[in-house]
Amino acid sequence: MRKITLSTLGIILLASLAGCGKSGDSAGGGDKAAAASSGEMIKFVTTQDGSPLTIKAELFDTAEAKEFMTTGKNPYIGNQDAIAKGKKLFQLYSCTQCHGADAQGQVGPNLTGPNYNYAKDATNKGMFETVWHGTNGGMGAKGKGLMDPTDPSNGLSPDELLKIIAWIRSHGTATGNES
Ligand code: HEC
């Protein structure tokens, strides 16, 4: 009687372990899909000291900006219309004055890579954070509401910044979406 109980238990245990592995896998996939569709914002950090960077969700006001907000990937990479607009915005926001007409560097560093003052700028999320909130070494924040504290409407929207980054990447070999 006792023997039977033990082996029955063993079988139940094995069966539940096998079941566990299976349900674990599918739950993992489910979680991922849920996160992608939940529209939850990824965590942004400042380039100054890596502290949390809060950006209002409503500023991500285009489908592309929303995609970036939830994935950290820039959907405008390689998009010729966006790149052309990014070039104009780079001039409009005076980036050219410090970084040169082709982002090749002037007073400010070359932006086309592959080497950066801040290694994270090799990724689009990293470069976005650097431009949005500025650096400790000579570049002020350019994000909406941060560029001119007396005028909250001043500064780049996330969508504009993604287009600028797409233009910057069009000069280099990496897309910035790799990692
Ligand atoms: C007043 C001059 C000035 C202007 C205008 C300016 N920058 Fe900068 N930028 C700098 C300097 C100086 C640095 C180097 C800062 C540092 O190392 O901390 C820099 C750094 C950067 C970096 C980081 C580069 C790296 O090597 O990691 C990026 C990206 C960048 N700027 C993009 C932009 C964009 C986009 C604009 C326009 C919206 C802009 N900058 C406008 C001066 C400027």
Automatic annotation (TrEMBL):
Signal peptide range: 1-18
Which UniProt keyword terms apply here? Heme, Iron, Metal-binding, Signal
Q: Does the keyword 4Fe-4S apply?
A: no
Q: By its UniProt entry, which InterPro entries does this protein fall under? A: Cyt_c-like_dom (IPR009056), Cyt_c-like_dom_sf (IPR036909)
Q: Where is the Cytochrome c domain?
A: 81-172
One term of GO molecular function = heme binding
Q: Which SUPFAM superfamilies match?
A: Cytochrome c (SSF46626)
- Kindly name one Pfam family recorded for this protein: Cytochrom_C
Determine if Transmembrane is one of this entry's keywords. no
Name under which the protein is recorded:
Cytochrome c class I
